[in-house]
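tool_log.txt
---
The assistant was asked to compare two proteins side by side. It first ran the structure predictor on the initial sequence, then on the second. Raw inputs and outputs are pasted verbatim so the downstream comparison step can read them without reformatting.
(1)
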Amino acid sequence: MTTQPPNRPPRQGLNAGDREQLNTVETQEWLDSLAYVFADAGDNRAAQLLEDLDHYAYFHGAPITFKQNTPYINTIDVEHQPEYPGDAETERKIRNIIRWNAVAMVIRANKASDGIGGHLSTYASAAELLEVGFNHFFRGAGAGQDRDLIFYQGHASPGVYSRSFLEGRFDEARMNRFRRELSPEGPGLSSYPHPWLMPDYWEFPTVSMGLGPIQAIYQARFIKYLENRSLKPKGDAKVWAFLGDGEMDEPQSIGAIRFAAYENLDNLIFVLNANLQRLDGPVRANSKVIQEFEALFRGAGWNVIKVIWDGKWDELLEKDYNGLIVKRFELLVDGESQRYAAFGGKELREKFFNTPELRALIDGWSDADLELLNRGGHDVNKIYAAYAAAIKHKGSPTIIIPRTVKGYGLGESAQARNVAHQVKKLDFTTMKNLRDLLELPLTDDQVEHLEYYHPGADSPEVKYALERRAALGGTIPARKVEYPHPTVPNGEFYEEFAKGSGERTVSTTMAAVNIISKLLRDKQLGKYIVPIVPDEARTFGMDALVPRIGIYSPRGQTYTPVDSGSLMAYKESVDGQMLEEGITEDGAMASWIAAGTAYANHGVPTIPFFVFYSMFGMQRVGDLVWAAADQRARGFLLGATAGRTTLAGEGLQHQDGNSLLQAYVVPNLKVYDPAFAYELAVIFEHGIQRMYVDGIDEFYYVTIDNENEVQPPMPDDGRTHEDIREGIIKGMYRFQASADKDTKLRAQLLASGPAMGAAQEAVKLLEGYGVAADLWSVTSYKELHQQALLTQRRNMLHPTEEPEVSYLAAQLSAENAPGVLVSVSDYIKLGADGLNGHLDRKLWTLGTDGFGRSEAREELRDFFEVDAKHVVVAVLYALLRDGQVKGEVVAKAIADFGIDPERAAPVLR
């Protein structure tokens, strides 16, 4: 493909001046031609023509540099800007009222309790962004399947509270209890969005930076999952996430954006509030952070809408025929922009309009006129246009990047200052200036006393705000828990696991998969089960589920898998039930949270089972686990290949000895380390009943290991299964009593999870040293410890009453369980050590403190001193300390087992 050049003199024969003149004329001809195409054929034809030219130039070797950025102007030009549908003046008054009350609330709180904190500047920058949404876009519960989910910027919570105050949802007394949840006068307002503290109001905790974006992505994906599986009617619900530009430095903020595009999440809208400042100063002072984000998200496949300049700039752009303003925009850096926001029109005149040509564009403009040149994120017309375009966009997620000013309207002490994020107080003069700026009818005395302003329930402002919310489905934020309580299988459903595995060896991981598989087949509950794995289904033995329930994919399966025709064929489907997330624990955990909160967010009681390497789960996703707890998520986290010594050959990085303690610190997380299949069945049944029938806001971390062993039946020694079930849930029960009732030397061995095998062997070895040992299965040190602490507290606060006895103390009393106490765990000693102080004698503990090794199980257990021989030595030493045997007995055992007493402790190696 070639074309003949026009009849012009050869360019190389011209002097520099003539060449430049020719270039100018030629450029203008191309621009005029493109303008004609725009006018005659429209935008799409112009875009197609440019694409054809691009291909032609590339084919002929033109050195075209790929650019992911568009010019530093608004994506939606003024010609394509829709008419604003609201009452602009009334909405302005509403914003002003909310701005004032948000500031007054925070300052009042700090006057009442110096240092209580709060944030002014984030909401000041985001007021227009939120209010356009509240008035025209955000749909509440009344919208049914079209109800939106909104992740608010955490530091903007004072503004959200102040809107609820205007709507009549909060009174002045409650506003005065901002950050005072323990007030005896009534409920307070939490510092940030915390569903645990305000369960009828907030839905998502967002102030732990970076967790909002990744959770919003997977919430949007889970909506599609529910719809494609017919668990939720298909609708037009959107997930809105309001984010900060500084927040985007967190890896979780951007770690899943490609996934969002791959999943075609056109129900997801990020609003990235680019006020150009983080906590300590500018985000990218030497460049333009908005351009950085545009390139990042466009490259990931998102629809990007920039809202940079307000309508006043349109006047200049319209008469700027030579594009000088746009060129000057391109030279801006954020540090320079911050100065203009802080110092106003005079600075803008001197530093921005810094050439004769630029100064000519503002000829006749005063500094006051220049002050009106604002950022697009404070122009409701620009914001509305962006939001309207976003909700209509199909095929990919959208990010809107509005440019705002941090601390907007808060005066010289806060607006666009580096300290803006930390400002909690404003002086009287600043508050008077703010009142005047907001045009509020408050006297100086009212300003001095920081009085709230409410125009009255019958005022036009309140009526308008409530009418708009009614039209959009009701006031928000609002968390309403209404879901059909599922029928949970009774104990008979789990009886097969109480019978044991016979001669067949089965790991507890495989037992867990078998239970999940059976739950999936249940006619009532099966559809609600959501298995989740981070690319480890085969490792955990879950590959057999894939051909039966399918892996969820919005595309279905557009290829023939290599194993098609086999019983274990890889199956992806639009209505697939398993979520196979790839190698991303964070993503899988965000999916688990979406499934675990669906009972509240969608009225669908999905029950997620997230199966992951125990070491790569709790250790890696601890912040998300805490967020799950805050938002009252329900479901099961299964730490597979649990313990420090079960994952033979994998070594330091893979072997888990600490996840039980990491899980312990989450208040509403139940933590179990079962040894047997029937214990797992009991825990699952109990958890489903409590979470989904009784409606208790808790969730479960359960360890499962990969060591194949014969699974014993539930003990049949005269106790009822109900008694044993109670012990499993409370944290311990006697698994096996010694048949020797006459031996003087006695011991009680406590074992859990993978350490049970060593304890069982130690019971037999101890017989050779004349010691009779009972064996206890400890399913949860956390349950035992917490119940003991509650008993201790109760007794301390009721000193004149008969002391109660904890479950732990009653089970292991000298009368019920005579002899020394020794525990062994595949986890660090600290878990079991917590029981000391709650017993009538010392508990000696063995555990796996230290780094892992790439060894087989037998060598690992010897290294960590948790195998049977070390259990025997620990029991004999406990008897020595109790004065029941001589030191020579312990020394003989050490020699018998070939233990080197001088070798370094594993924690030091």
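(2)
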Amino acid sequence: MKQRKWKIGLTVLLVVLLIGGLGAYHERHNIRRLMLVHQRYQRTDVLSTNQIKVNLRAGVSTKHTATTNQLTKQYRSNLRRLTPGIDHAKTMINPYRTSPLSGLILVKTNQATRVTVTVPGDTTASTITHQIKGYRRAHSVGVLGLYAGRTNHVRLTFTQKNGHQSTSTYDLTTAAAPKAIGHNQLKTSHPQQMALGQGHARLTFAVSSQGITYGLDARGRIRWYSTAKISHVFKRLSNDHLLVLTKISPNSHKYNALRETDYYGRVYRQVNFSGLFPTKQDPHKLATNTVIHHDAIELPNHHLLLTVDDGSKKFVEDTMIELNFQTGKIVKVIDLKRILPKSAYEDYTGTTRPDGKIDWFHQNSMYYDAKRDELIVSGRNQDMIFAINYRTTKIKWILAAPAKLPKSYRHYLLKPTTKHYQYNGGQHAVRLIQTATHQGHRLALEFYDNNVPVTRGQTKQSRQWSAGTIVNIDQLNRTVTKTWSFGQSLGKRNFTNIVGSSYAVGKGNTLIGFGYADAGKRSEFVEVNRKSNRVVFDVDRSKFAHGDWSYRAQRMTLYPQNNLQLTAIK
């Protein structure tokens, strides 16, 4: 009887605790909702820093890392149980489930050997090779650069310390690539003049706006793609991992998961954002938004600088945050409304949005100059590139046409030395290049000039072409000189009202991504030699899913890391 009463009492206590816990959760939920609806401002239209942190609600997620560790543990066990001998290898496709053109070969050798992996291509220039450093007996060989929809005859060459070699070929069969990628038509390819890197492992990556990111070889064939939907952000980190912006779950409508991954699909770290913001039509109503919208870069302290929507009920895409990626804590907020003139956002009429919010700046890229502790920022809807001191956020210079800029800001303007200088309009993808040769107060700045003036800089040439561009900047004398541009000769066919990129890739070449050609029906990737203006690679992309035009074209190596290590991620 006493035992029964004890059980009843315990049950009642658990029910009370459960109800209390649910009540506390509900109360916290209501408090957070009130904080999101009744926002705190530093001044008119400018949110307080603490309010922005509350709005974004960043938090570390370990779900996908746990899955990665489970798979790694399984493969480690498989390798341990293998019989020595290259004929007893175990092979698998897509070992971490989001990279269908990757593979894993587990094999043991009787002697310590160094492994070279070769994925034969249709041509010499599309054959991808990678030598794994170090000699060992148990090998977990990561394979990248498989073709889609075929059996790939992957060759492993085992070299002993005395130079003796043996070779074995393993068949890895892949499924066809998704039709949503669209059609990639090779127009031009001169592999010997292309910047393909060691072992031809550098691919041209078409970074998606909202969909499938993939990589092309020198023949325009797909050699890598991810089934995890990616939006805008696809960057190599200093530890040779990848940083991508993806969805918290595959069924999510918004991209609010910032993920550290690699080409195999292993997940090392992930920070999720809430994105629950008040609407402009009804500030008491909340709606989920994508927080990180265009760019993310790694700072020297390994924190991440992100372009974000800050949760304002009125403005969008005008704020940056510095995120401690280890903890998920926001350690710095840069609100551009605190830096640029009030008239820029209060009087803006250049564009409109369906949700009624004001996209007065539309920040689309940034570059941190570690030598000078300066941040270079690009804003499409102000047709403006400017630099600030990162610590103080004070303006250093502005590259823009003078129109509509208050007198108090005009002394920051760079003065053109080039005759008939054409100012940038709606530009993207700012980055410093030739940093070793440009010292002191001199900079070489590259960017993609959409040539679509939104606020300032209208000329007869506007909207007639888009171009990859390089300018030299003298910060001391505040002058700008255009040194190279390519795209004008391609005319209106390659004019892109939005998106685009231009990146120096080596061998004196620049890779240009005309991402929104033909009003978003086509993306074109062009590698051109800057000295001769000769096109050495050209691929047309069409028939892709609506909205998934290629935001950027990037040349990146498949093998930034030595090999796929079967170690647990902490």
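---
observation on (2): Residues 2-37 form the longest helix (36 residues). Residues 313 and 486 are 40 Å apart (CA to CA).
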